[in-house]
What we know:
Rossmann fold, six-stranded parallel beta sheet
Amino acid sequence: MIANLYGGGGVEAVLFDMDGLLVDTEPLWYEVETEVVERLGGTWGRAHQERLVGGSMRSTVAYILEVTGADVPPETVAGWMLEGMRSRLARGVELMPGADELLTEVRDAGLRTGLVTSSGRVLADAVLGTIGAGRFDVVVTGDDVARHKPDPEPYLRAARLLGLPPGRCVALEDSPNGVAAATAAGCAVVAVPSVLPVEEAPGRLVVGSLKELSVERLRALFPDPEPPSRIP
């Protein structure tokens, strides 16, 4: 049970991934990646995108340069990527099914909230402009950490900013990299797979959609510890 793995005591915060979990940006990333790779003279496919889900801009750019063999500065490629995503996000972004309702329910229940994304601050701010920055108590982006998912640093930072132990937080993720990061940090984990599958594992709940989640179900991940046995 998750309580045994993470110490129980009840959930106090819900930490949300962004791309592919809260907002349907993975198709946009695929468009931008394809555009940039073709600009560099290469070709791109779904198998390439799957290598990058849940990763950072740095790892994305490094992989694109590896695939294309192009002799272009990484910062130039990153600039093309950011501009491509900015222009698309400016047209609006679609929330994933159940995301708006779950965010509202979590906030109404008095739980703390955090956004923990591998995307940079510029892109996170663009998304927050659509879904509402005020819905999150803390925001951790790829620009705020030295090590990115699957390293636990992003989730450890979010918990620290909230003033909570990671074991009082439940992380909602869509990718294996994100799940690995949250697990390593000591959070309870709910996986809602998007591009890549996420396997069932002890202490991990896997669902098909955010519509399957509620505050009651999140709280059920942290059952109250059994009272001590009475001494006769």
